[in-house]
Write a structure and sequence with these properties.
The chain is mostly helical. It is 56% helix and 5% strand. Strands 2-4-1-3-5-6 form a six-stranded mixed β-sheet. The longest helix has 64 residues.
Length: 507
Amino acid sequence: LVGGRKVPSSELVNGRGEPGLSSSAVMSHMERVFYDLHQRVSLLALKTTNHKTRTVIEHAALVCGVCAFCIVLLCHRTFVYRGPLATGCLGRGTDGVGGLGGAVIDGIFATARRGKCASDGILGTKGGTLPAGCLRAVPGFDNEYDVLKIAIGDEELGRSYAYFTNQQSSHNVLHETTCTADTDTRRNIVDTNFEPLYSYSRTKGFLLLPPAVQNKHNVTIQHVVVSRSDTMCFGEEFLQRIVFSGIVGPSTVALNWLLALNNGTGYILPSTGQIIDLHRYASDYYFLMPRPWEGAATIPEDAASDENNNGDRTQQRRGGSFLLFKLGVLGASVFLFFVTTTLVAFTLRETQDRMLNFTFHLQEQVRHRAPIGHLIATHVVENLVFVPIMLGTIFFLIEFYGGDKFLAFMVLTIVWVSEVFSVISMRTNQGIVFFPRVFFLYFTLFHAYYFSCPFGFSYLSLLSSVLFLVHSMLFFWNRYELPAILSDTVSAQSPRQQRQEPEGTAP
């Protein structure tokens, strides 16, 4: 007996001629085990809930998913930096902004005055309005620095401020800042040391130096402490509540401030993590916006007609490159989907196969009162082969996601949960055919956003995808699987619904 069922002698020999369960017997027994589990859970749900309650839960998951998607869309449109052309319609001046950043912004406004705006981009979007103006609007900020450290103030901080260290003229900047700030701000500057969230520099070596070496070589460090109530950085009160609600967080918002400083170039060192090289993303294809052509600040006014003609050809080339990049993103998403789902399905199938064979041999050993220590040790050693497979999958995903261990673990967990749910609960034709397609759609949409916007709200986007996936699970389970249990369309004799052939088709 295996699993409460008498096994025929023909099924007690595996494919190698050794005692054990054959492949067909393993599949049959596993199908029965999964069906029993599905039946128990379904009957429990039917007993404890009614159709109205299950429908409410299903719709609640859909509403939560839609709300999360709207928050992602709102945060992306407001806080994500998508190239300097996004600031061309803001109507801001560039007084006090020097260096490369000021030249680029001057060129943008010159282009905007000639009738071109951010909405002329490939996707016709204007981009986020807050990242480009946040840090430059902080009192005391200066674009001449070696290292820039960003910190978020506490709730009591009334306004944002900036000050220098390791610079002879830093006292003047600090004095000017404190004179324009209120009493609480002055006290925070003198008494409070806020933990920096990010450190930024145009030179990678400055970020690698320890603080003592930076002080020794007079490395200019500018500290910017941003108030949580600063509307130039976090928007209006409604957006501030979203950012600091615990779901979004200020990390991604602050990261995009640094991206907007020097046209998305330089190096960023998070408080926990490795240095991010922004030059990897200095292309026409990230941030869902094309980047400006070189020398935009020096285009003469009398060359406007030639610029328009050349701009049309450049825009066409960018459109083709942009399309190729998006096709690459789609290919990477599809590749990642098939790799993860194949490895998870293989691991699940093989471990269940070995577990059933182990159960058969264990019963034989117990029946003949033979020692079982060798059998258990052999089973453990055989299953250890799947540990490197899972570890390799995790490390592969970590590299794929740029070192983000949490995101890699969460994606693999979602694939595991979806695979197990599909194997156990998807037994009708509708669930078997359409649930994998729905999962593929949500999986691909998330990765399309992640690879297209590497500095976007990835975790919030993943949460939105998970909520939509939960809704699809509840939808198929409530609309098709439970009625199939009640109507005996799915039973112990037919654990999965057989697809009916059209009438008149030859058998």
